[in-house]
Write a structure and sequence with these properties.
Length: 177
């Protein structure tokens, strides 16, 4: 997920590799966090919640508040010393302006990003290199995407005005218009 597409003031629901996740900015840890997009209480999407004044992710349904570690730090309807819950946390990091996460919440992978890093692309961090992040949800698998990429006939129509492609010529009675 490109960081430039994310707003630190709100949680963001995403579907990545079939996983429903919420990406949110933890101001207390100064880091982007990736959780299961489901409150452990009533299974409400955490992405529909908000970031509270203490920087915690707050569930939209009953207001349960979660820290960046996934621990529930506050339940408005329960005594402060009562039992609390937690939400599944994916190990995550930012590299090349992209939020990367390890797609497994098993505790054995908690520190996986200290051993395995996302691929580093030095050109993306080079200020003389020009690039643009594009993010588009497509309702089909990679097989159709690859076929689409390999089909140059769609360029002047599907990407009209974006690419400089010659416009088709119209021939009327032997005159090229």
């Amino acid at each position: 997920m490109p960081v430039c597409d994310l707003d630190k003031r709100a949680p963001h629901g995403k579907k990545v590799m079939g996983l429903d996740v919420v990406v949110w900015w933890d101001k207390n840890e100064n880091a982007w966090k990736v959780f299961d997009d489901m409150c452990p209480h009533r299974l409400a999407p955490l992405s529909q919640g908000r970031i509270d004044q203490w920087g915690r992710l707050q569930c939209v349904y009953h207001g349960w508040c979660f820290s960046g570690s996934g621990d529930c730090k506050f339940i408005p309807q329960a005594p402060p010393d009562g039992p609390l819950a937690c939400v599944a946390v994916y190990p995550s990091t930012v590299q090349n302006g992209i939020v990367w996460f390890w797609a497994n919440t098993d505790p054995q992978y908690k520190d996986i990003l200290t051993k395995k890093k996302p691929p580093y692309i030095p050109e993306v961090d080079d200020p003389s290199f020009t690039f643009q992040f594009l993010n588009r949800d497509i309702p089909y698998g990679y097989e159709i995407l690859i076929e689409n990429i390999m089909d140059p006939a769609h360029l002047p129509y599907a990407h009209y005005g974006i690419m400089s492609t010659p416009q088709p010529r119209l021939i009327v009675k032997g005159v090229c218009l």
